[in-house]
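Section 3.1: Structural characterization of target chains.
Under the original work plan, the team committed to producing a structural model for every single-chain target entering the pipeline before any wet-lab resources were allocated. The record below documents one such target. The sequence was received from the expression subgroup and is listed exactly as submitted; it comprises 280 residues.
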Amino acid sequence: MGWFKRLQEGIQTTTKEKKEAPDGFWQKCKSCGGTFTILELEKELFVCPSCDFHFRIGSHDYFNLFFGSRYKLLFDNIRSYNFLEFTDLKDYDDRLRKAYEQTSLNDAISVAVGRIKKKPIVVAAMDFTFIGGSMGSVVGEKISQSIDYCIKNKTPLMIISKSGGARMMESAFSLMQLAKTSAKLSLFAKEGIPYFSFLTDPTTGGVTASFAMLGDVQFAEPGALIGFAGPRVIKETIKKDLPEGFQTAEFLLEHGFIDFIVHRKDLVEKLDELLCYFQM
């Protein structure tokens, strides 16, 4: 009857006396439900120690993984703005302002040049925290300028995709980036310089329909969500039941859409192997 006696006496700890962990100090794994400190996850490259679930990380986390502190940011002064000035899109200015403040990024993609074991490479990495990693005019322009830089310096390019798709607040200008990036990558291919496409969770929408699927080598992180439209839209369109997990990296590997899946701890070594194989 101890539980009944405790219920009668009431809870002894007042709300003011209760201690809670600071925001962001603990992280819960979406796969196994395990809870870990940020420091624990940092040591594991933000991979769950229990089930190997890959947490989302940002562009600068990838730069640090590849280059340490020895890299140079490129085209970092390019910013989006509401150039259409539609009256009903005034909230786009607010969303951009909040994104700049909350992420300290200038847009949904950052570009860096550095060396992996003395081999130069340009890495353009997307950030999902910046308006869902949406592809607007700045993302397309940074990829375009990255390609120009790589052609001029004969340097391999890797794009790390992590996006919810096109940024519809920029209307047709966002959709134009599909054609723009695809055309520039076609020119890049004619130069014979390798382009590696690294797909991370999630890679969807217009990004999947353009540069993310045009790599000389396509690879992904384990468990990454990769697709164009959502499962509900696809099912309603084709009027058929969909295979379980059909938009995972593992399913795409099995059906030949990507070349391999790489664990985050093996990413640097695998990239070094690719650079050696394609050494110019």
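Residues 42 and 88 are 42 Å apart (CA to CA).
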